[in-house]
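**Sequence, structure tokens**
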Amino acid sequence: MADAHPQGAKGLTTGASMGVSIRVMTYADLEQELGLKPASARQLVRRNGWRRVPGNDGRTRVEVPAEEFERYLKTPIEASVEDEENELDTPVETPFEAPLVAALSAHIARLERALDEAEAALKAVIGERDEVQALTAAAREEAIAARGQIDVLRVRLDAERERGLAAAARIEEIAADRDRWHEITTRTQKPWWRRLAG
């Protein structure tokens, strides 16, 4: 069996895998050999399910069955504009990136759950705050009403105090008049000789 990846012309390699001849090519090789745009070349690889292998130089290699490659050489490949746009928006994931993508996806999921929990807690706090504010407002209204009632009662109390003082002064005046008239009456009731004697 021949070496799986001997070097060929123009940076291409050929070999055999499971009895099928393959060509190991970069996306640039596919674009050049088949006359494709970058998006169309990536779409062709994905559509055919060709195996992709990351290279040490950072470029991805694609294992293309030689028979299929020859067929595409003879048959022009056309891709719709929509397919090309979608292909440009679709990142190519290498085997080395898969664990990182999975870890990031899991971390994002955890962050989203934490965000949901934080939002729920915030809603609860806002609800409690609104309830406290409502109770505070009600208490403030009651305090204002009570203060108004106290002011009214204070005015009434002052009025009653004034009336009490006036009544006490009147009583003292009446008592003085009574004592004066009692003295006059007592004097008029004495015999004439006692009145003369004083």
In short: The beta strands are 13-17, 20-26, 51-54, 60-65.
